[in-house]
Amino acid sequence: MTKKDNPTDRRDFLQQSILGSAGAGLVIASTSHVAAAASTDSSEPELINEVDVLVVGGGTAGTIAAIQAGRAGANTLLLERNAQLGGTMTTGGVAFPGLFDAWGQQVIAGIGWELVKECVELDGGEFPNFAKVPQRHWHNQVHINQFLYALLAEEKCEQAGVEIAYYEFPQSVEKTDTGWQVECAGFGTRRRILCKQIIDCTGGAEVVGLMGLDRLREDERQPGSFLFKMDTAHNPAENQLHRLYVHGADSTNSRTVTKANLTGRKAILAKVRNAKQRLMHLQPETGFRESYRIVGEIMITVNDYTSGRVFDDAVAYAFYPVDLHTKSGVKPKPLKPGTVPTIPLRALVPKGSQNVIVAGRCVCSDRLANSGLRVQASCMAMGQAAGAAAALAAKTGSTPLQVPLASIHGVLRENAAIIPETSAV
Q1: CA-CA distance, 78 to 258, in Å (whole number)?
Q2: For the ranges 45-54, 163-172, 324-333, 382-391, which has the lowest average pLDDT?
Q3: pLDDT band at 27 (very low <50, low <70, confident <90, very high)
Q4: Cβ-based neighbours of 235, under 8 Å, separated by 6 or more
Q5: Which of 19, 90, 108, 347 could make a disulfide contact with 150, Cβ separation 3.0–4.6 Å?
Q6: What per-residue confidence (pLDDT) applies to 6?
Q7: How far apart are CA 114 and CA 102, in angstroms?
Q8: Domain regions of the chain by residue span
Q9: Residue 160: other Cβ atoms inside 10 A
Q10: Are 357 and 386 within 8 A, CB to CB?
């Protein structure tokens, strides 16, 4: 071995270079080590999984749905096309989930709140006073460390026995005698999943679309937001990020998402040049507010939402102003004092379907109702309800709407969810 090839000499050279650079203000981060456990199937390009519940989409709703299904005893697989869980809160950067309270009391709790609470506590943060009715709705937003949330979400999935598959997405969905056969693809991976129940938490009901079931969407969509920070460092859970509206943002497919991301990044680069300030933080992609919604067994209308209608099959509360973003900005329309909307199980079930349920902003609702329902706390509550319904349906060999509502409520209460009082129970 020549002196040039000696690894010890290379290490000494690097150490001398680091020491020599110290006076120039360079800071070299320390290196720690961890070993990934060897996977028995890592070299296999084709995999087959047989599970009770398949959750597609590991965002705000899907993470909670998977944890609830796992805790309810279902063998659960969670597919996420990106690199982490959390969706809007982590990849999108909207790290202030809400609203968990209404009119002086907490109305949404359960697994979502459990995760948010642990995140704030571990980060040394503070909680708003839910007993106090704020002058503006955003005063009671809970601010979280988005990076910590993603780590805790993975931990809770592991504790619930949920298997996570990143960088994969369904290519086709076919009915079987016992549920569904789902063909998925990722780089270097082809996966066939045989499952009893599917929970679609993709935001745009993309799995429902693959099934050939009806979806709805207006021609006009709310703008997406690309979040960034210039001039000063971003302090998670304390500093708010700057927001760039990306009008025409469309999350329908990889091509439309690419266009939204390129448009947003180009505009941010122009801002950096014009302002002559340093770019201190940039989220990896556009956050989308609006996409396809399912045609469900029932639609939540804006009148249902603003009147606080208590549906007979309500599985969760929701709370937020009617919040439609447009080219001229947003003017939230607060709900009347004492009004707390509810979410029925039927709005999570595609019309005429079997063995599939959704959660999140693709809930069956008209556009104005959806502008309030789409926020994170409500999506978490929907996700937990869908996870309970799917797990029970898989266990009993039925479909979500055939599961007794009292049984769904029972599982939700076991996990600290707050259930609307209904006449059906």
Answers
A1: 24
A2: 324-333
A3: low
A4: none
A5: 90
A6: 55
A7: 18
A8: 46-218+292-414, 227-282
A9: 20
A10: yes
Kind of pairing, strands 356-358 and 189-200?
parallel
Query: Global pTM?
Result: 0.92
78: phi then psi, degrees, rounded to nearest 5: -115, 120
User: In 10 A of CB 231, how many CB atoms?
Assistant: 12
User: Amino acid letter at 62?
Assistant: G
Label each residue of 97-133 as H, E or C.
CCCCEECCEECCCHHHHHHHHHHHHHCCCCCCCCCCC
Nearest Cα neighbor of 157 from 268, 209, 80, 258 is 80
Q: Is the pLDDT of residue 392 over 80?
A: yes
The tokens describing 128, both together, are 């708003």
Closest alpha carbon to 112 in 82, 86, 74, 139: 86
Helix (H), strand (E) at residue 55:
strand 46-56
**Domain covering 46-218+292-414, topology:** FAD/NAD(P)-binding domain (3.50.50)
**294 phi and psi angles, rounded to 5 deg:** -75, 155
Of 245, 248, 244, the residue nearest 218 (C-alpha): 248
Q: What is the pLDDT of residues 131-165, one digit of tens each?
A: 999 988 889 999 999 999 999 999 999 999 999 99
Interatomic CA distance for residues 401 and 398, integer angstroms: 8
CB atoms within 10 A of CB 181: 15
